[in-house]
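Q: I'm a student working through a structural biology exercise. My instructor gave each of us a protein and asked us to get a predicted structure, then write a short paragraph describing it. Mine is Swi5-dependent recombination DNA repair protein 1 homolog. I'm not confident about reading structure output yet, so if you can add a plain explanation after the tokens, that would really help. Here is the sequence I was given:
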Amino acid sequence: MYKSNKRLSGFNSPVLTGPKKSKISAETSSSASLSPVQATTSEEINNNNNDDDDGGEELTELKKELNDLKKELNQKEEMLRKLKLVKMYRDKKDFKNLPDLTEKWKNCCQKALQDLHMLLPDPRPSMLQLLQNLQIEPLLLGYNVEEDSFDT
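A: Happy to help. First, here is the predicted structure for Swi5-dependent recombination DNA repair protein 1 homolog. I'll explain a few features afterward.
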């Protein structure tokens, strides 16, 4: 009578092998890892939901705090960048030779204006007219209007 057991390969008779718990009943009996579908009482479902809500609110607060800290970090990095730039300019700028450099650029500008004036076609405008057309202050370049020449 029990010889037919060989034909049903996936089936084990509880009479021949003894009592065994099925895998399904063993998994559902543990209450530690209950999902809302496996929970048997509404109290267990409510407890699981309350834990998720608190975690969600806490997660939202942590994300907000993280964003605030990132903004503050960006502001501090920008301030540090500006301070380093100011320090570099202060170290780099040497105002001791500024009068010499000013005189050098003034002479170069005077020479460039004289060359430009010579390249203009006849009838050439006066140097004063050229300076006024270029909207350059004659005194800025040391141009003497009365003598019609640059002071050197």
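A: Here are two points you could use in your paragraph. The longest helix spans residues 42-92. Confidence is low (pLDDT under 50) at residues 21-32. It's a good idea to check both against the output above yourself.
Q: Great, thank you!
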